[in-house]
Design a protein that fits this description.
heterodimer; A: 775 residues; alpha+beta; Aldehyde Oxidoreductase, domain 3; Aldehyde Oxidoreductase, domain 4; 7-stranded mixed beta sheet; 21 helices; 31 strands; B: 229 residues; Ubiquitin-like (UB roll); DNA polymerase, domain 1; two-stranded antiparallel sheet; disordered N terminus; binds FE2/S2 (inorganic) cluster
Chain lengths: 775, 229
Amino acid sequence: MATVKTKKTTKSKKASQIPVRYRVIGTRPIRHDGVDKVTGRAQYGADVQLAGLLHGGILRSPHAHARIRSIDTGKAAALPGVKAVITSADIGPVTDRVVDLGEGATRLQHLRDNILASGKALYQGHAVAAVAATSPHIAQEALRLIEVDYEVLPPVLDLREAMEAGAPLLHEDLHTDDLGTKSMQPSNIAKHLRFEKGDLEKGFKKADQIFEREFLTSMVHQGYIEPHNATAFWNADGRLAIWCSTQGGFTVRQQAAAILDLPVSSIKVIPMEIGGGFGGKIHVYLEPVAALLSKKSGKPVKLVMDRAEVFEATGPTSGSHIQVKIGARKDGRIVAAQAQLAYEAGAFPGSLVVCGMMCIFAPYDLEHQRIDGYDVLVTKPKTAPYRAPGATNAAFASETVLDEIAEWAGIDPLEIRRLNGAKEGTRRADGLVYPRIGFLETLGAARKHPHASAPLEGPNRGRGVASGFWFNVGLKSSVTAAVNSDGTVSLTEGTPDIGGTRTSVAMQLAEVLGLAAADVKPQVVDTDSVGYNDVTGGSRVTFATGLAAIEAARDIERQMAERAARLWGVPASKVKAAGGVYRHATDSKKKITFKELAARLDETGGPVVGKASLDTSASAGGGFGTHIVDVEVDPETGKVQILRYTAVQDVGKAIHPSYVEGQLQGGVAQGAGWALNEEYFYDDQGRLANASFLDYRMPTALDLPMIDTVLVEVPNPGHPFGVRGVGEVPIVPPPAALANAIYRAAGVRLRQLPMNPGRVLEAILTRDGKPPSKA
Amino acid sequence: MSEESKKPPAPSSASPEASGRFSRRWFLQGVALSAGTAVLPGEGLLGGSAFAAPQAPARIGPEPVQIALSVNGKDYQVKVEPRVTLLNALRNYLNLGTNTPIDLTGTKRVCDRGSCGSCTVILDGKTVYSCSVLAVECQGKKITTVEGVAEGNQPHPIQQAFVECDGLMCGFCTPGFIVSSKALLDRNPHPTPTEIRRALNGNICRCGTYNRVFQAVELASIRMKVKGG
Ligand code: FES
Ligand code: FES
C-alpha cells in the first residue's frame, strides 16, 4: 500500500504525468448519487429496516441544571412491549482518562456523561434514560413511566456571568487550564489560551486612533435537515454494528469504543447517506445508547431524534463575547490588534475558541497582536463545530471594526483590506507562515466585479464588504480502487459524502487514469471495508481523499503499465502511460487503451487494485473569501432585505465548479440566516423556547436573492491539481458584510447577532442618542 | 411519573404522534401554526380539507383500524391507530397480507410539524405535508410520493433536470422539492421565476441549493413544453 506524506506527494508530481490541460478536472459531470437522491431511493439512516427491529426513545432532562437523586425505571420496564430500559449505570464503570479522538483530547467521563447524564443533568434535553420497545409509541409511553427525582439547581446561561467567581459551577472538579497552569479554585472557565506576536504596547503607541469594540453572538444550530439517527445491533459474539448518519464512520467507531469500553475492531460502523452535517454530525449522541439498548434486549434497536431533540440535545455552535481593540494610522495601516474571545463550550469543555483566535486577524499582515481565548461552560448543550467553527463569530467582530476604520481613514473598504492584506510569507499570530495564498486576489476580483461599482440607488439601501479565512485540514484518508473488466474503476472511500465529494474525488482518479468521471464508480463504505479515514470536516475531503485517489490512480497506472509490458513481452520501463493510453516508448505501433487493457487483465496476471492511505497533516491550503452585499433596511420595521450578494473566493483549483459554487451559495445562505435571524432563545430557567423550525427560522427561497459567485483560482502548492478546501470559508464573511451594509443603509452599527428586525429597529430609534420613541 | 420528568407541553417539543397525550386539539394547534407560516402561498396547502373527510366514521380508534391507501397507483391495506400520520404510514407500516412494508422511505421526516416541506406528497392533485395529515383521512384519495414521480423506470423530466442542474447537495430535502415541483408543473406547466419561488417557499433546503432548484424547474418546464408540443 502506498503510504505517503504529502511532501513526497508534491515532489512526485513530476514523475507522474498529470496533464496540465485537464480533461475531467474543471468540468461538470453529473453526480453519481444524483438519480438515487431525486427518486427517493437513496438510503438514509432512518430508512434502515432490520428483522426484529426495536424502536428506542430517550428521556431528557426538563431542567437546565439539576442533580439526579434517583431514577426509577421499574414501571417502564414492566410495560408490555418494552424490551430494555437503561440509564448511565448501564454504561459500566471505567476509570476516567483522557481519550484522543483525533478531534482533540476529551475526558472520557465527559464523553460518557454527555451520552447519558450520571450525577447531574447539565442542560435541558440532556439524556437521562432510554428505552427500547416493539413500537415507537410504546417506547414513548414507557419514557413517561420513568421516575426521576431531581434537585433543581440554578442555571448558568450568560457567558460573562459564568466566568465570574461565585457563579454556580457545572463541574465541581473542573479547574481552569490558565495558559498551562491549573487554577486553584474550580471554575466554569475550562481553558484560557493566548497567541502573541510582536510588542502590542509598542504597536498601539504608533496608532493615530484606537478602536475598542465589544460584540455578542448567540448560540446557533447547523440546522442540517436530517435528524440524528442510529440503529445498532450487538451480536451474541460481541460484535457491534452501527448504522447512522455521521460525518465520519471511524470517529463514531472510536467514540463508541471509548464510551462502551470495547476494542475498535469489535465495532463496524456503516455510514448511511447523510442529510447534512455542517460539523454537527461528528460527536456521537445516539449511537452508544442504541448499542446499549441492543445489548440489553438482544435485538437491533433504532433511535431517531425528532426536531426538538435535535435543537435541544445535539451540538449547536458557540455563542460568544468578543472584545476587539485595533490601533490604526491615518493612512489606514493597522499597527496593533488585540482581541479577547470568550466562547460558550456548553455543558462540557471543548468550544472551538482556538479556531476563532486563529481566524480573527488571519486575513491581515499585522506586526503586533495579542489574542486571548476562553472556553466557558454554561448550562446549554455541549457545542459542536459549525462550518468554519469559531471563525464567523470572530470575523463579525474584526471585520466590522475594520469597516469603521476604513470610514474613519476615508479609505475604500476593499482598499483597506488590500493595504493590510496577508500574503505568502505573512506570519499569523499563532505562528503559521502562509505558503502561497490568494487573499489579495479575492480583493482584486471583488473590485473588478460589476457589483462593486454598480450604483445603489434608493433610500435605506447600503452596500457592505467583508472578508474571511478558514483552514483546509489534511489528516488521514484511505481509498482502494479496483479495475473492472469493462474498463471502469470501482472506487471505495471512507469519508461520507455530504456535498458531492464522491464525485469530486472520483474525478481526480479519472483525470490521472484518462477516464471519464462516469467510468469511476465511487462508494462510501463501512469501517470494516476500507482503511482508516478521518471525518468529513475541515474542508478536507476533496483535498485529502482526493490526494489518496490520485495516489491510488498512480498505483493502478503503474500496474497497468506492467500488464501492457507483459502483453508486449517488454520490460515495464518501456511502457509510458498518458491520458488513458499505454504506449511502447520506442515502437509507436504498440499502444493500448486503458479500456482494452482492462479487458485483458485475466490473461496478464489477474485483478488490478490500486490503494493509497495517507496523512497530510502539514500541507493543506487555507482559503479566503471576500463578499459584497446590498441591503435595504425598512426603517419602520427594522427588517433587512438582501438585494444582491456576491461571494468571491480563492478556491485553489475548482475540481467540479458547480459544487464549488454550490458550496459558496450554501455557506452564504447559512451565514445570512445566522446574521439576520437565527439564535437559540432560552428562558431564564434555561429552557429552549424555540426548538422548532417554526420558531428557529432558517432562510427559505423568498429570503435570499440569487447569489453570485466568483471562483478565483490560486493553486494550492500542496496538491497536484492545486485543490484548496472550499466548503467552510463562505459562511465566515456574511454577518460582518451584512452588518457593514446595514450601517451604510441605516446609519447604525450592530454589534450583536442576530441582527433581527427588533434589534435593527431599536438601533435606528436610538441612533442619534434618542431614546426609542413610542411611535 | 414524577412531575420533573415531564417534557414541557409546548407544541414544538415533540411530534403529536410521538406523544402519548396526543389530542386532536393539540394536533390541530400544530397544524394551525404551520398553516400560518410555512404554507406554500397560493397553493391551499393543507387547506383544512384533510380534516373534513365527509365519509369518515363518527368515531374511530384508539385501537388500530384497517384502511386502504392508494399510493402511486397501487392499493395497500394498512392497520394503523388513528393518530398515525400519512408520513409514518408510508414509511413504516406493513402492507397487510403481503407482510412487506409499504416502505416508501423516499418521503422524509424532518420536522414532523408542517414546517419544512420534506414530507410533501400529492394528495388528490394538491400538495400536502404528509406529517400533518392522518393516514385514516387519506382513504379513497390518490397519493403520489417521490417514488411515484418517475415514469416507470425512467426519471421524470423534473428529476432529470434536478440532476443536470445539480439542484441537490445532501439530497435530504430533495424528494420534497421534486414533489412540490411536480405539482407546480402539473398545475402550471410554464411558471414564471416568481411563481416557482413562491411555489417552493414551503420547502427548506439547508444546503442552500435554491438557485439551482429554480433553474432545474425552469429547465424541466422548457423541456416538457418541447416534448408536449
Ligand atoms: S416533516 Fe412534514 S413539513 Fe417537515
Ligand atoms: S440538499 Fe441538503 S438540505 Fe437541501
